[in-house]
Design brief:
alpha/beta; 7 strands; single chain; globular; seven-stranded mixed beta sheet; binds adenosine monophosphate; 9 helices; binds manganese (II) ion
């Protein structure tokens, strides 16, 4: 059974429409898919409809940008009720923070002589959310840099001209919205935050105390060695283990939809009581 609990569409910074994402999932033999766009649930209805047609078990999700102290983290929410008003109000505030940051990124790049970047990124992003990959794509399209990784490295990461810290909600708020919407809060790609293992344990401990229930162990974002470390941390903290590709599109990431390493033995999968035996 192929279970992929982390994916994106063009409602956030992915390439495919929700329907096309599900069609690809079906081609890849995915049985269970969660759509987890950044800070929006806009794509869920279309994706769910297509999943039903294709016989894929669909999980409502969202990936919330949040702060643990000064560290930007991502919290994947699974099995949420997308109509929950607290969750939607929180996501709306988070999207507004994105918009404010995006304008400020444009101003900072203009001050460096690179003009019109906000407008260009916005045109690529559409109306729902604007994210750094939209800036990266614009910088590539206008010939400022040769590819997306270079755009990040030269302009979009901490310390570079286009980087602006974002006042994301705190992780405690994000977890609380998720829990109020009946969802499961999952620390996304925990090995990606450049934390020492002891810092990471303290993040996971705080997250658990705030009501968080799970962490991603198996993801295309982790090396085999990182997965082993995350597996150990997951057991120590007694969290549920999640698995997802973090697929953004055929040309955007090395991740392949539905391609997720098997969870190491001895972990409790986040889907243990979802009744997936029948899938
Ligand atoms: P944002 O949420 O707007 O801060 O943008 C973060 C998104 O940018 C992540 O979800 C990834 O999709 C993408 N991303 C982050 N770092 C890189 C990188 N170094 N190269 C390419 N894409 C990246
Ligand atoms: Mn992304
Ligand atoms: Mn992420
Ligand atoms: Mn993601």
């Amino acid at each position: 059974m192929i279970i992929d609990l982390h994916s994106h569409t063009n409602c956030s910074d992915g390439e495919l429409s929700p329907s096309d994402l599900l069609k690809l999932a079906s081609e890849h033999g995915v049985n269970v898919l969660a759509l987890t766009d950044h800070d929006t649930t806009l794509g869920l209805d279309e994706a769910r409809q297509q999943a039903t047609e294709l016989g894929i078990r669909f999980i409502n999700g969202v990936e919330i940008s949040a702060l643990w102290g000064t560290v930007d983290i991502h919290i994947v929410a699974l099995q949420i009720d997308p109509t929950n008003e607290t969750l939607q109000a929180g996501l709306k505030a988070t999207r507004l923070a994105r918009e404010v940051r995006a304008k400020s990124m444009g101003e900072r790049l203009a001050a460096q002589g690179i003009k019109g970047v906000y407008e260009g990124a916005k045109a690529i992003a559409g109306d729902e959310i604007i994210a750094r990959p939209h800036f990266a794509k614009h910088l590539v399209a206008t010939g400022v840099v040769k590819d997306i990784p270079t755009a990040f490295k030269r302009y979009l990461v901490r310390g570079k001209a286009g980087y602006v810290p974002t006042p994301w909600p705190s992780y405690t708020e994000a977890v609380s919205w998720i829990r109020q919407a009946g969802g499961i809060a999952v620390v996304a790609h925990p090995a990606r935050y450049r934390l020492t293992m002891s810092k990471l344990r303290s993040l996971l401990q705080d997250f658990k105390e705030a009501g968080g229930q799970a962490m991603e162990v198996a993801t295309a974002n982790h090396t085999a060695e990182e997965m082993e470390l995350m597996s150990r941390a997951c057991k120590e903290l007694n969290l549920l283990a999640s698995a997802g590709s973090d697929f953004h599109g055929p040309t955007m990431s090395r991740a392949t939809l539905g391609k997720v390493p098997a969870l190491p033995p001895g972990l409790t999968p986040v889907w243990q009581d979802w009744g997936l035996e029948a899938v």
